[in-house]
Amino acid sequence: MLVQASPGPTMRTRESGDCTRNSGGSCLSGSAVAMPTLDGSSIAMSACSSSGSTQPASPMDTQVCISKKQDRVKKRIIWGIEVAEELQWKDWELGKETTRNLVLKNLSLKIQKMKYRPPKSKFFFTVIPQPLFLSPGISFTLPIIFRPLEEKEYMDRLWFEKAEGTFFVDLRATLPCHKLTCLPLLQLPMCAVGDTVEAWFDLDNVGDLPTFFTWEFPSPFQMFPATGLLEPGLACQIKVAFQPLVAVIHDAEATCWYGENSRQKCSIQLQAVAKCAQLLVSIRHKQPEDQDAIGFHKVLHFGSVAVGCTAERQIRLHNPSVVNAPFRIEIVPDLLAQDQAFSCPTAQGVVRPGEKKCVSVIFHPEALSTRTVDYFSITPSGCASQTLLKVVGFCRGPAVSLQQYCINFSWINLGERSEQSLWIENQEDCTAYFQFAIDCPESVFSIRPAFGTLLGKARATLLCTFQPTHPIIYFRRVACLIHHQDPLFLDLIGTCHSDSSKPAILKPQHLTWYRTHLARGLTLYPPHVLCTMLKEKKLEQDQNGALMLPVEDLEDSPAPQYPSVPPMTEFFLDGTGNMAVFPPPVTIEPVEVDFGACPGPEAPNPVPLYLMNHTKGKITVVWTHRPDCPFWVTPDTCDVPPLKSMAMRLHFQPPYSNCLYAVELEAFAVYKVLRSYNNIEEDCTVCPSWCLTVRARGHSYHAAFEHHVPHYSLDAPKLFPAVPSSEPSYRSLLLVNKGPMLLTFALAPRSSADVTLRPTSGLVAPGAHQILLLCAYPKGTTWKQHHLYLQFNSCPQYLKEVILQSREEPRQLQLDTSQSVFFKPTWVGCSSTSTFTFHNPTRLPMEFEWRVSQQHRKLLAVQPPRGLIQPNENVTLTWVFSPLEETKYLFQVGMWAWEAGLPPGAKPPSTHYLLRLVGMGISGSISAKEKELDFGNMLVGSEENRSLEFGNDGDCTLYYHLHLEQHSPEGDAEDPPALQLDRTEGSLPPHSQDTICLTACPKRRGQYSWTLSYSLLSHRDNKAGEQQELSRVTLEAVYPFLSILDVCSMGSAEGITRKHLWRLFSLDTLNSYLERDPTPQELTYKVPTRHSTSQTPPVLTPLKLDFNFGAAPINAPASVVLLTLKNRGVVPVHWSFLFPSDQQMDLELWAEQAEFDCTELHQMRVQDNCIFSISPKAGGLSPGQEEMVQFKYSHVFTGTDRLPVLFKVSHGREILLNFVGVTVSLEQKYVHFTSTSHQFIPVPIGDMLPPRQIYELYNGGSVPVTYEIQTNILSQVQEKNFDHPIFCCLNPKGEIQPGTTARTLWIFSPIEAKTYTVDVPIHILGWNSALIHFQGVGYDPQIMGDTAPFYNISSWDSGSTHSKMLVPGQDEYHGGLRDTEKSQRKSLPRLHTACGQKVLLLRGLPDIPAAAPVLGSEHAKGWPPIHSQLSLRDPNCVGFSSVFPKLILIQPLQAYVNC
Q: Is the pTM of this model over 0.70?
């Protein structure tokens, strides 16, 4: 039995699994997770979304039950035997036996042998146990009988035994029970807030009894059906609807209660994610006038659209979120529904995730020459955000013009006909409908065609005809009616002569004079009276020839001129009604006659007409009558005395029955005196005729005949245009006869009396159209309905009701309800802004002006102060508040609003509004989080960014300007700034933080310091306030500082002393180069770069020095030199040694150089054979870190090997090292001189024991050599210096073993503070000689004082320590260690006597043989005494006045003090 929760159950069977259903009702198999696909359909558990709420009564909410397949017996395979896991008995009865079969099947390929044991209980039994033999593929059925004795559950087991082991089958008998199952978890798709998604799952009744269920679920989940009855073995589809209200993750549990007293339950976990939908609105095919900027309201411009036409533009809705975005588009309800020119066909919809949807906006204007503004709100589901779309459009109508507005037919004879052409043009690109208000067949004037349609930018030719019937003056002003445009007027003039009557010829100038006379009130006088008054000087002629009163009678007021009358006013106030612009000279009543039904055969009674002459002259009235016209007036010609009336009769005789008749009869009234031109003495007195018209209609339908059905279309507006108070409002209607028969219309009497229709009746030919004009004077500011009833074909049942609404537009604007503006607290001297929006609810543009009192103009300003607000437009003003002191301000400002478009000088009535503004002036300051910002150590030329956080703790917004002042070092004006700010101006809201980025890029070495200050900006005078310090910024700009710490040699160079090696590698010079700043050329490539295309790269550094590896025999062990590099700087250093090949770019074979010079070939040989090698060639050192670099020179080829190697310190120095090495042949002598000049250490004069100094000679050959220093040159120097040994070589001769260094010992002993030089030859016996230039400097320590730096140096034998001074530019290294840190300052004592005499200290110098390598005090005893005789010289040179004694004897190492 199937039980449903609501009527109309749906039954459906299924094979397996759960059933899923989408919105279309299809079923899909799936699992428990609902996942929407890209096309919006669902997979797995069905899910769909919609923008509406879930309705339980929908067909999909009906309980859907599905029958379940019988549960299959679960089987297992044990040792090749397939057997059920369990046998179950259901629906059993007490005392009855129920049998179930247990099937065993052999799935193996061999015979299975087993036996079984019967169940233990007495309620389950089987046949007598016996052995079983199962062949492959054979099944055996074992019956098992269950016989219950009590109503309870029974359980037992049936055991089987095999050779492999035992297994069992459970036997179970259960009682009927309630049991429902469902999925433990249901994951619904993500859903937008305000939207709805749905998913389904199955509730299965796996029990044995029909079960009632009830669901309990939390909000925002809903489940359908919530209650129901489920039969055993059936499944019910449960629909879950999720409609979130907030964007959170929803995880809730739904509980299903069932069973007796609903005590049992099953639950399902419902999980869903709600997200806010987002819609990005943009304008498709954006025009220049559109506004589509992010963060501003959108403005969609339609431009100029023709009235009655429709323009369409599109906006694009983009959904960047991951959920559907339902939306609705509503027009802001500020206008009357009939006045809404904009519409959006798509009121609501859904944008899929990541997709875009285009929505059309339509502009269909009806109000001419108006700028229409409206607003659309685009709101996604949940109303989280709203986009306001402003739409703007202008309605333009046709622009029809005539070639000329006066057709002069001049004069013709009676019975003749005259024609002239005239073109009519539409200057706009919209369709124009026109019609001339003249019944051409019944008039002396005719225009063909009298109506028509002009397409955009089109022109048509009209044919005007004049065919008079009487010899008089003819003038008729014909209105050209145009749909959606003011009428045009065409003046038709002509004169008819006969043999007996020749009236004055009417000209266009006469019309001009007539209109001037009309304004001056002279048209009521006949021409002969005006001539008499002109002769009597009662009238004068003005400069245009028109008549006027004498000047003395005008009382200093100008003569009236004909005013400019609006076309609509002239058309409606033509004198046929109760109002007229000027009183008509001649009138006729009635102007419209309806004969009604005249079926005949007798003619109807004529209708009396009353013609009144309001002039002061006799007039002649002539009616135009065609012979075939069914309407005529009698008499057709008559004279009417001045100020008298004349009775006439209007006759109607229909020639055919069952027809409609309507005509416009025409009559011309003219002064009788004008019938002959001889009566006219002054041409300016000629007056044109007056045209009188009478509309007559009737029909000849019999009462039994039905009038033919009219077929027409009527373009009727719903609203009158907006007009100011007491101004008329006009509209046009277009009636088109779409039938094959004539169509007559007439205004029914019950129409609203406050609306005027012109013409009130008429006849429309088949396919023709009639233009009707409406005029109303709106009264009151509430909408008023006007009902017009048009009767067609003279039949009361053919009525058309036209309903229009009008109102008098109020001069008012809608301000905010509070009418208050509040400014946030503002810093004194600064300005804050606040916006204020007001709305124009009227349909007229309004002008407004805000008037701020003079005393408040320094404090308060508004932009714009005045302007124009279009109908239904919102204008947002910006108020600027600039306080002058710390206080609270309260202002009241007035706004005046009046109607726009008034003529200059007019004083329109205005409306006054008051606005309340509140502000407060306070003070404020800016503070930085870090008062001192240190960049630390930076490489020169590098760039580093730091952020400085600063904030405003006050209550007002501060506008600031940042100033950066550099204190050190003083840079040139042309140098780029070493510190830059990402911005220098900005604003800080109250209680906010901001961050500026400081970029440091020092260009030279030094200690940099800046002061970052700020000044608050004033919006009043655009001046900055006093500067306040914000933070101090410092940095240390450095270059990488790398130095050579130590040097040692190995291999063939092992015999070179460290001091000699220091000089060979020019390490003093190298260290001095490394201490200096790099040149700009060296920084061309800041890091090692392959930049050369030649074998010899260009040299970008001026620094060059030699790395001399000395000399060694061929095939000797390689000369190895180890240099210790140390980073003495404060930044990491990256260095590299670049061979020429390391600087060469990789080129294609065709681009490589084909020919090489000798130098390039030599370098290629050196590099290819690895004669010079460096390990490592590059590396990096942290501050204070040391690294050893190995330089290796292989003695492969004899001769001198050279290779330029570039020593590159990244971001630092670039030094060209010329690697030089010599390889000599075996048994060849070779002594390597470090240089041809040698500088001795400066020695102070008067030193008792001058230091022993060394000059080294290195034997780079493979055989011993003997050197000999020529000392006779030294004796010559001694003779020139008072026989004092200035230079003394202690070992002038010796032998140098191969690969060793000989140290020649020298003593430099100056006696004067000057530079001594000597060129000494050194001979290598059996080889070459060299001339070495020795130089020494003597100085007076008493004169130099503390400016003389002394250095402790070790002697050759390390037995004594002496002091030496370095000349400017000379560095001293000991063992590779630069000892400037350990230098000591030392000076000889200056002795003074009591009498102020100066003391001269003399010291004996040793004179020992050269063979003595070591000199000590024991050797000094053998020195011969020195006889020194002091001679007096010029006291100005040495400062001595007298020396006593003049001759003394000084023993070796003995000192003598002489005064």
A: no
